[in-house]
Amino acid sequence: MSVSKIYHSVKLEHDKCVGCTTCMKNCPMECIRVRNGKARILYDLCIDCGQCVKHCPYHAKVAQTDPITDIFRYEHRIALPAPSLYGQFRNLHSADNVISALLSLGFNHVFEVARAADIVSATVRKMIKTNPNKPLISSACPAVVNLIKIRFPELLPHLANVLSPMEVAARLAKEEYSKEHGVEIEKIGAFFITPCPAKMASIHEDSKTYVDGVIAIRDIYGLLTSQMKQEVPDEVKNMEHASWRGVNWASFGGEGSALGYSNILSVDGIHSVITVLEEIENGRLSDLEFFEGSSCLGGCLGGSLVFENTYVAKNNLRKLIERMRNREKEEGTAKVVEPRDDIEQYAPFEPREGIKLGGDISEAIEKMEKIKSLTKSFRGLDCGSCGSPTCRALAEDIVQGRATELDCVFKLKEKVEQLAREMVDLTNL
Question: What is the DSSP string of 327-382?
């Protein structure tokens, strides 16, 4: 598939935007501005976390994903369901029901991403033992990876140099299907069923990705529910399935718990992740073995493209995992998953350049000094009335030519009062 260097799934529909600033106040990257009654996204800072999509009351922020009809561009079609998909259904006794429903929609095969999560867990478990940069940081959440690329480039060596479960699943699924059916890999389309827009953005940035499309969970949910009452065929029951540990990756802390280490830290919510990354950057958490950061509250179950309420989905998944654990214990079907040395990232992690302050160092330093001076001149209330998320952000916007000092309501009030005094003085002459 064709790829671009920087692609963003999150888009703004201007006609729906009323300039309410809700998105601006919830953006962890401070990359949204509101000017002339409309929001604007500074894409150089956007990490496609989907927080604006989730919080916009007017649905003016949308995440572009692929329609399910795109699967028919390929003669052979593989569905890659994220573990969070299972949490969308109540009283789900087995993943077989979801897999069977996906096949009914036109997929020829289903490869659970939770299976790949088991492989990634085994590989990361091995990496921790020899990792010189502590803590090792999970690279599973693309929004967190982009956050580190932009705001914490010094921590890039800490990122686990392993492909995401989505990418591992796509590659293994195509290789297995190609071998079993004698089909060229180019004729196979692999489609990830996603809970978040960051996954969509990540495949467009990776020129070597095996994923051919990304379908939002909420877009496919209704179609799946209509098919899930059908009887599960034997071919699905006999498929190789993921373990409950792989399925548990959907929940906050699931990745960390699958590693079997006690000295790990799992954090959900992008704002909290930023706080912990600052601690790691300052060397205060060097005793940790592993850090798992989830952009969304509740982990992938809290993604902006899911259908079910996060807490309901968490309870749904908990019940399913409980059933899976009991079956594994009763049937003695627990498998030992071996680590793989061939699932490293296709390319090393590189810093992502944010917004440049100037063309050279001297210009950047000069603008930085102006930003500091302007910031001190404001009241520091970070009220957002100016259309920038903070007073410092407004100072940056002024220096970059995106705003003026009079966008600050307090500066404007001072200016109006000054003009009023001048008018009074003129009338007294």
Answer: HHHHHT---PPPP-SS-S-SS---------S-SSHHHHHHHHHHHHHHHHHS----
Residue 1 pLDDT class (50, 70, 90 cuts): very low
User: How far apart are alpha carbons 218 and 286 in whole angstroms?
Assistant: 39
First to last CA, the chain: 75
How many residues are present in the chain? Answer: 429
Residue 376 lies in a domain: yes
The helix, strand and coil proportions of the chain, stated in percent and rounded to the nearest 5, come to: 50, 10, 40
Residues whose CB falls within 8 Å of the CB of residue 38, separated by 6 or more in sequence, listed in order? 14, 17, 19
Q: How many domains does the chain have?
A: 2
Compute the distance between CA of residue 183 and CA of residue 256 in angstroms, rounded to an integer: 37
Provide the domain limits for residue 428.
360-429
Q: Where are the alpha helices (DSSP H) in 61-112?
A: 96-104
pLDDT value at 207 more than 80: no
The answer to whether the CB of 376 falls within 8 A of the CB of 405 is no
pLDDT one-digit tens code per residue, 330-350: 888 888 899 999 999 888 899
Residue pLDDT, tens place only, 373-404: 999 999 999 999 999 999 999 999 999 999 99
Residues 235 and 121 in one domain: yes
* Together in a domain, 246 and 376: no
- Helices then strands, counting H and E runs in the chain, come out as 16, 11
